[in-house]
Amino acid sequence: MDITLTQGIILAIIAIIAGFDFWLEGLYIFRPMIVCTLSGIVLGDMTLGIVAGGLTELAFAGLTPAGGTQPPNPILAGIMTVVIAHTTGHNAATAIGLALPFSILMQYIILFYYSIFSVFMGKADKYAAEANTKAFARITILPMVIVALTYGVVVFLSGYLAQAPMKALVNAMPQWLSHGFEIAGGILPAVGFGLLLKVMLKGRFVPYLLIGFVAACFIKFGNLLPVAVIGAACALYQFYNDKEKMQLESRLATSNNGGDYEDGI
Amino acid sequence: MASNASNNNTENKRVLTKRDITKLGLRSVLLQASFNYERMQAGGWLYSMLPFLKKIYKDDKKGLSESMQGHLEFINTSPPIVPFLMGLILSLEENKENRNTIQGLKVALFGPLAGIGDAIYWFTILPIVAGITASFASNGSILGPIIFFLVYLAIFIMRIFWAHTGYSVGLKAITKIKENSELIAKAATILGVTVIGGLIATYVHIDVLSKINIGGGHSIALQKDFFDHIFPNILPLGYTFLMYYLLKSRKWSPVLLIVLTFVVAIILSFLGVL
């Protein structure tokens, strides 16, 4: 069965809303379970949507954006699985595989955005320095809007206008280019950490930076809690040392000028 | 000592109402509004808290500017529990704590919270909920998507609870912080810097793919046989220090460094080095 223009537009709107949600990880309506069900309702076959939702959700359960990696896109996987099953008559399980190129296309677009949105931070820094809250709000919302609209366009093109050319586009992308963006994404946090260190790092704190670095290299653990505990140990050690020193100094001071400690410390 | 006087001060300074903290919980959903690889959630983190920072700093434009710049530094944590951290940090902001204390605590906490949040929400709750609801859905039952939606709606509403919890934990800590504010600022910086060391090792990825042929069909894999034998993650540490040096001593702009990183990454990918 073909998809009508109205259905194409409604699917695009669903993609825009789910796109906002995936970007923000808010209500999880971007998961295939919900996206497939909604797509099924739009196409007039709710049962197909729900069944596809269950299958696609399981297929994507292990593919999570945790830890900064970007998995194949769950929204495109969800919508296109239902669209392909509906238009070609394939069953949902086969349609998941056929929807994968679209899901990978969107994954690359998002990876691309993750990288180039870094450029907005320069302007954001400027507005923050000027305490210009209105301009800052605009520059912060802009990326989110770009992303959501992209979802709308991609879904409208893939679902309604041009399924075959979109698939060709995915296959035509050179490997080195997408890999290059992936690599850049892996290195870019170094710029963020450089900025952070510019604010926080003084010569006498370098030992702690090195301790944290070495600890994280050799403690193989799912999160940074062990490193934070080591950091807390260092911080406490320093704190009590300083406090002792301070009390000693104030005692010396009081014994020198006869109990005059009205300034506190 | 000076603790009595500061106790009185904390009472007077409270400008945020319970309603504000509830709103903070809801606004925290904007955490990833301007997500990017350079500073990840920094823009959204600041944007979520911005109305309340404005309320705290009122006409103090300089104070607001300093606070905004501080909150625009790198952060990446778990979205569903970030309201806890926001509530905590906002209580410190409300009391005009030392900027180093705020910065140090934020940096020290977001990494571990990210790990805990991911473990709970992505690796525990999602597989369980997906597994159960998918079994309904595979039979075509509408219960599948409905239960799925309700679970995540509940998780969303929990954000309000996390914001209030973080805020009250912060309030309790403040009196203790006040007594030794200078020392605690230093200790917090130490904690923060230690965690940044760990962040560099876990977030920055540089893997060299090149191999050097040494004749006779033997080759040395640069990453595995060379760099990893010197020290693991030596390249990420080196590159981060290079960025730090260029930013601090050479006053290069971050945007230039981002573009540079891009160009280098794509060229090296084309050449097959990375």
What is the gist of this entry?
Chain A has 12 helices and no strands.
Describe this structure in words.
With 265 residues, chain A is mainly alpha-helical. Chain A has two domains: 184 residues, no CATH class; 56 residues, no CATH class. Helix content of chain A is 78%, strand content 0%. Chain A contains twelve helices and no strands. In chain A, helix 2 runs parallel beside helix 4 and helix 5 runs antiparallel to helix 7. The longest helix of chain A has 32 residues. The radius of gyration of chain A is 27 Å and the shape is elongated. Chain A starts with a helix and ends in a 9-residue tail after the last helix. The model of chain A has no long low-confidence stretch (mean pLDDT 86). With 274 residues, chain B is mainly α. Chain B has two domains: 196 residues, no CATH class; 64 residues, no CATH class. Chain B has eleven helices and two strands; from the N terminus they run H-H-H-H-H-H-H-H-E-E-H-H-H. In chain B, strands 1-2 form a two-stranded antiparallel sheet. In chain B, helix 2 packs across helix 5 and helix 3 runs parallel beside helix 5. Chain B is globular, with a radius of gyration of 23 Å.
Main sheet makeup of chain A? none
Separation of termini of chain A?
A: 81 Å
Instruction: Please state how the strands of the largest beta sheet of chain B are arranged side by side.
Output: 1-2
Helix/strand-derived category of chain A reads: mainly alpha
Order of helices and strands of chain A: HHHHHHHHHHHH
The tally of structural domains of chain B comes to 2
Q: How much is the radius of gyration of chain A in Å?
A: 27 Å
Which residue ranges of chain B are poorly predicted, with pLDDT under 50 across at least 5 consecutive positions? 1-11
